[in-house]
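WARN retry 2 of 3 for item q-0093 after timeout on previous attempt; input resubmitted unchanged.
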Amino acid sequence: MLDYFAVSSSFVSSDAEMLYLWIRVIGFIGVLGASAYFLSIYTKKKRTRLSSIKEGEIVIADTCSLGNRQFLMVAQYGDEKHLLGVSSSSINHLAKLDNQSSLSNDLTNDIGKVTG
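OK item q-0093 returned
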């Protein structure tokens, strides 16, 4: 009879340890999620500061990776924005970007031509 209570108490402590382990794992995942959230907010604030660019500075406003060390970049100088194609061996000027509304209209028209 004493062996039954000894085994029973070891299961209880094992269950408590397992519960404590799961609480720690879920807490760690929560800390990772919160830090990723705050890091994304920080990077968005950093991008919005681009509107207060000093005159005479060239700034990379946005970057999109295409893979294999190739990127699309938006370079901003004052109020002008230029789309650049960048690879490990070259930099190509692809287009001058005017404003966001005309760019989205052009993209919508181009997508309509391709799909239609």
